[in-house]
Amino acid sequence: xxxxxxxxxxxxxxxxxxxxxxxxxxxxxxxxxxxxxxxxxxxxxxxxxxxxxxxxxxxxxxxxxxxxx
Length: 69
Known about the structure:
The chain has helices at residues 2-11, 26-43, 53-68. It is an all-alpha fold. The chain has a domain at 23-69.
């Protein structure tokens, strides 16, 4: 147990933390993992980039070329 704790402490960082999730109850394990994933994704503050008019035109042009094939 001591070696396990040392390994966890040595490799878990703020950017890449370890999580201990109990595995003796499937629904609870899945709920815990889903909660961690959701919380992590929300903390990333992701958003769809805003395209300029020029980029919109280039995208439309590329779509037309792909459809023409």
